[in-house]
């Protein structure tokens, strides 16, 4: 390889800091983002907490030997103390805020002397997990990309956790504080754009960045067989619900709608 080509490759190689409360060995899409970045030759550092999702207890293997979990797919993994999720809303709240506290307190020291070309923040719930990234954006003077997978304060209202308009307004101000300090906001759905832009007040920095299907869905459809339970409904009109099933999705409402429409034949049914 010529020296000129080597220089070009070096110029294209980025130093990326990934900030995420959740990370390997926890199973989240951010793991694949990191492995893809390193596979493309970028230098990646991950700032995260101790693995404890979903059971709410720090993983036993991690407790035995934390050093085994200090790298992933060629990326360095730095972990801050974190109170495990445990059970109950109080413990969950302490879990959320412990990442914010220790992330903001320790990350400047853990990352001292390092420069980054970009900071990528993986934002599931809660929105507070982005606060260490906002702080590091200021300290490191690097652009911040926020991948929004849960809308706040909308999520709090949808799951019935918060009913007070005043409290939702306070959370909205926190969301606005974070969004306005991001250089690019990635929404996993185009339906996210309006709520994001409501708080960011900057439509120009919102981009569509959907999640992708697991590798299991790459199987050859010709060899895929329907579940045996569907055999008795071979000639029926079918509707597929694909996605999370939880309070925010109000799944009972989906079942109620199906029951209410049981006797109604859709005009498109005969075309299938």
Which terms summarize this structure?
2 domains; globular; alpha/beta; 14% strand; Rossmann fold; disordered N terminus
In short:
With 272 residues, the protein is α/β, with parallel strands linked by helices.
Molecular structure report:
The chain is of the alpha/beta class and 272 residues long. The chain has two domains: 3-215, 3-Layer(aba) Sandwich (Rossmann fold); 216-271, no CATH class. The protein has nine helices and eight strands. Helix 8 (193-200) links the parallel strand 7 and strand 8 (206-208). Helix 4 packs parallel to helix 5 (131-140) and helix 7 crosses helix 8 (193-200). The chain is globular and about 65 Å long. The termini are far apart.
Helix count equals 9
What is the chain-wise order of helices and strands?
Answer: HEHEHEEHEHEHHEHEH
Shape designation = globular
Overall CATH class of the largest domain:
Alpha Beta
CATH fold group of the largest domain: Rossmann fold
Mean pLDDT: 86
Q: What percent of residues are in strands? A: 5-15%
CATH superfamily caption of the largest domain: Glycogen Phosphorylase B
Please identify, by name, the CATH architecture of the largest domain.
3-Layer(aba) Sandwich
The total domain count is 2
Structural class by helix and strand composition? alpha/beta
Rg calc: 22 Å
Low-pLDDT runs of 5+ residues are: 1-8
Strand order of the biggest β-sheet: 3-4-2-1-5-6-7-8
Largest sheet: 8 strands, mixed
Question: Alpha-carbon distance between the termini?
Answer: 56 Å
Helix proportion: 25-40%
